[in-house]
Amino acid sequence: MGSRSSHAARIPDVDSIQRETGFSQASLLRLYHRFRALDRNDKGYLSRVDLQQIGALAVNPLGDRIIDSFFPDGSLQLDFPGFVRVLARFRPVDDGDHGNRDPKEPEPLNSRMNKLRFAFQLYDLDRDGKISRHEMLQVLRLMVGVQVTEEQLESIADRTVQEADEDGDGAVSFLEFAKSLEKMNIEQKMSIRFLK
Amino acid sequence: MLRAALPLLGLPLAGAGATEEPTQEPGSPGEPPPGLALFRWQWHEVEAPYLVALWILVASLAKIVFHLSRKVTSLVPESCLLILLGLVLGGIVLAVAKKAEYQLEPGTFFLFLLPPIVLDSGYFMPSRLFFDNLGAILTYAVVGTLWNAFTTGAALWGLQQAGLVAPRVQAGLLDFLLFGSLISAVDPVAVLAVFEEVHVNETLFIIVFGESLLNDAVTVVLYKVCNSFVEMGSANVQATDYLKGVASLFVVSLGGAAVGLVFAFLLALTTRFTKRVRIIEPLLVFLLAYAAYLTAEMASLSAILAVTMCGLGCKKYVEANISHKSRTAVKYTMKTLASCAETIIFMLLGISAVDSSKWAWDSGLVLGTLFFILFFRALGVVLQTWVLNQFRLVPLDKIDQVVMSYGGLRGAVAFALVILLDRTKIPAKDYFVATTIVVVFFTVIVQGLTIKPLVKWLKVKRSEHHKPTLNQELHEHTFDHILAAVEDVVGHHGYHYWRDRWEQFDKKYLSQLLMRRSAYRIRDQIWDVYYRLNIRDAISFVDQGGHVLSSTGLTLPSMPSRNSVAETSVTNLLRESGSGACLDLQVIDTVRSGRDREDAVMHHLLCGGLYKPRYRYKASCSRHFISEDAQERQDKEVFQQNMKRRLESFKSTKHNICFTKSKPRPRKASRKKKDGMANMEATNGKPPRDLGFQDTAAVILTVESEEEEDSDSSETEKEDDEGIIFVARATSEVLQEGKVSGE
Predict the structure, then answer these.
(1) CB of B239 within 8 Å of any CB in chain A?
(2) Locate the EF-hand domain: which residues (chain A) (predicted)?
(3) Is B664 in the A-facing interface, judged by CB distances under 8 Å?
(4) Which residues, including other chains, have CB under 8 Å from residue B475's CB and lie 6 or more apart?
């Protein structure tokens, strides 16, 4: 373990990152290697171009949105803590966490609510806290193939917003969004198992 | 019960009559013997089909009778009742005819009774859930069954050595292993019958059920191997035979699956062309699936696996290709056949048990077997779950394990297999038969009866039976994409990578080949759910009297119940029907509600979209209600989407595969032009780029280097160029956006 910790020591601020995200040392190390691998010119940070070079992302309909989610507030540089912070959402949920958690501390990044918030932010591009029909439509357009015509898409968007919208404001707030998905096993669907 | 027994009473009499020499034309009493006979009793001519029909009739009548009493059916699963009925009937037959007439014949069972059930379960199996849990299912099916077989066989042999089994049971280790292999397989029929009543959560169900289907291969192999070892005599077995046994496991299972997939492919392909001959579509489905079963059976591969794979594989394409009515026909016929077969199986099980000439009792063996199968199953489940939980995201907890071990029911397959044993080679056959009967009865009756209270008591997470709402369908897709993307970022090919890859492969090649053009155009899952939701709404709307006047009273099944007026459904219905007309809300709905204004707004939006030509890109371009920023952003996004699509086609042209999609082609062409124009506007509107072209060029090169093949034709090169340009431009857009939009 001695060599392990000396590697980990190369990661700047490893302790605070670990505390904030809850990753194990091994995972952090793996992520750090990945970060360095993605950072082609050894800049020390990632730019959008670096992430776009991941070929598979380009064919993922939500690829660009996800890349954007790594760069909050329009920043252009992604440092390692930021990288890890986003990925921490996808840690599997430990039941042990809930038991010992100090209720005064902020919710862990990989809690169900935070996972949902991450997904919500992908829809809600203008960050007004609501998914408008328009935003829903945009997502639909991204995700649906060319076969579906525009009309059909719009009807779908209407319907989707209607279903979830409870207070009748024509948009889906975060709480409504969470409620519409209460039956879905988010913890499983938004978790990558080897990111412990 | 009595009513059901009455027709049966006729049978033994007739049967008895048939076994005697058919008397020629007894006629009605008092008729002049020679000359024309007005009335003849020709039982022997219709005997066979009549009997079959009568059996099925009895089974169905029995079902009706059971369901008359709510209380009984809520307590006792149907399978129990059927077995008990079988016992009663068998007793009656025995009493009347002095010999057992009707048995569960292995031939009938394997050729006619089992295929419908397996086909039904394979076809309606939720494939996503199945593949999600495939690791667990395979572990339990293969490792679990092997474990059960060997330990039970060995334990029974040990019991014999210890003298608890009477010496008249002449069986060696191999015989016990053979017996262990056939008794240890969890039976799909029984599991289905019981679990469907119990409604545990879907993960648990799919694991137990998947296990019961997939262990067929293991059972078949073990049975055959042990059988041939016994026939060869234990002294002649060599090491190579063991190896051959192991190899045959792979051959049987993979071969069976391959056969199933081949037939699935054929089925999907043929249904593509049945547009003019709709009426034969259900027939095709059944025939080809049955052919898969028979082919696998003929090649001594695992027939159950074949049918399961056939059902799983063909479902998506077949559902797309066949008409709505055919779909309903297929669904109902399958369910009917399966339910009918299941009923008959259980009844025959009951009846066959009564024939005491076929079995011989040995208490030690029976009790020992019962104990061991329960014990070793529980042990096996615990051990495997412990191992699996290291790898599973959502671990299987104790309650799941209890249900899984308790839910390992044995059924008719074991019985059929034991009947098939050769008594000359295996002298202990009769004892085995008795034991099997007891085991099957015990598991189906006792375990079937008690599993419901057990589940309730343990408060297992029951399955929530709801059809997916549009939201859930959409978000499920979103999550899949998100997860796949994040995994790409993290750099580990998790499960979702493969699912994504499969889905892309499927979209590009398989769906084009196997689905009808028209179906392919509109076949998109989200649209499908929406379509079905709307149909349901339409039907219930009509059922509620179809009054437009008071929309307050309208409750539609797909919408969560809300007191506030649902979005006037008429509008939705008409919108959905795809009519190009711009509907005016005020004209149709006579009741003003608070949501009218909102409706009107949304309505005009829709109208705004509708007037423009139908290409998505263009329509989005011409939205006048979007603000300028949003417009730009939307442009860019759609643009990026096109870039992505360009990249895809870029990749596919590299691979020189069909770029001959005729339908989307014109759209792409027009979009290209649109892109060109939009591109120019965009670049003109942008401030001079800070980032030099070198950066973007770097991107191009790396993108290209990811494709290792070389492009061949010059035509594709031209495509490449265009693709590259847009990649470059788009990335600069993206990089610009971060600066321009000051969010």
Answers:
(1) no
(2) 111-146, 152-187
(3) yes
(4) A119, A180, A181, A184
Please state whether the predicted TM-score (pTM) of the whole model is above 0.95. Answer: no
* Residue B705 in tokens: 């280097």
Q: How many domains does chain A have?
A: 2
B560: tokens are 């969560």
- Interface residue A112 vs chain B (CB under 8 A): no
Backbone conformation region of residue A31, classed left if phi is above 0, alpha if psi is from -120 to 50, else beta: alpha
Other CB atoms closer than 10 Å to residue B261's CB: what's the count?
Answer: 17
Provide the token pair at A32: 């750090």
Q: Taking Cα atoms as reference points, which of B442, B438, B364 lies closest to residue B406? A: B442
- Asked if residues B381 and B405 have their Cβ atoms less than 8 Å apart, the reply is yes
Chain A residues touching B602 at Cβ < 8 A: 133, 158, 170
User: What's the token pair of residue B67?
Assistant: 């369901």
Give chain A's count of helices (H) and strands (E). 13, 2
Residues A83 and A115 in one domain: no
Question: With an 8 Å Cβ cutoff, are A150 and B490 in contact?
Answer: no
From the list B561, B500, B527, the residue with the least C-alpha distance to B131 is B500
Among the listed residues A96, A70, A69, the one whose alpha carbon sits nearest the alpha carbon of residue A81: A70
Cα B731 to Cα B722: distance, rounded to the nearest angstrom: 14
Residue A129 pLDDT greater than 60, yes or no: yes
Residues spanned by the domain of A58: 13-89
Closest by CA position to B120, among listed B3, B293, B295, B4: B293
Q: 3-class DSSP state for residue B32?
A: coil
3-state secondary structure of B626: coil
Residues A79 and A144 in one domain: no
Domain end point (choices A38, A56, A89): A89
The CATH number assigned to the domain holding A162 equals 1.10.238.10
Q: Give yes or no for A119 touching B (CB within 8 A).
A: yes
Paired strand residues for B523: none
Say if A196 falls within a structural domain.
no
Q: How many beta-carbon pairs under 8 angstroms link A with B?
A: 234
B637:A142 CB<8 A: yes
Q: CB within 8 A of B491, min separation 6: which ones? A: A34, A37
Nearest-angstrom CA–CA distance, B301 and B257: 9
Q: B481, A60: Cβ pair inside 8 Å?
A: yes
CA nearest to B724, candidates B739, B712, B707, B709: B707
Helices B114-123 and B188-198 pack at an angle, to 10 degrees, of: 50
DSSP letter assigned to residue A74: G
Q: Could you tell me which residues come within 8 angstroms of residue B80 by beta carbon, excluding any fewer than 6 positions away?
A: B444, B445, B448, B449
Residue window 127-146, chain A: list those with CB within 8 Å of chain B. 127, 133-134, 138-146
* A15 sits in which H/E element: helix A14-21
Q: Does A93 touch chain B (CB under 8 A)?
A: no
The verdict on A37 touching B (C-beta cutoff 8 Å) is yes
B20: left (phi over 0), alpha (psi -120 to 50) or beta: beta
For each successive 10 residues of chain B (743 residues), what is the average pLDDT? Answer: 39 40 44 71 84 84 84 79 83 74 79 89 81 86 90 88 74 83 85 77 83 85 82 74 85 90 91 86 91 92 90 85 86 87 84 76 84 90 90 77 85 86 80 87 87 76 57 77 79 60 78 72 56 65 54 44 35 39 36 42 33 25 36 45 54 46 35 36 35 35 34 33 37 41 33
B559 CA: distance to closest CA in chain A (Å): 6
Domain end point (choices A89, A124, A149): A89
In a domain, A140, yes or no: yes
Domains of chain B listed by start with CATH number: 97-458 (1.20.1530.20), 478-537 (no CATH)
Q: Is residue A101 part of a domain?
A: no
Residue B700 contacts A, CB cutoff 8 Å: no
Residue ranges of A 5-24 with Cβ closer than 8 A to chain B: none
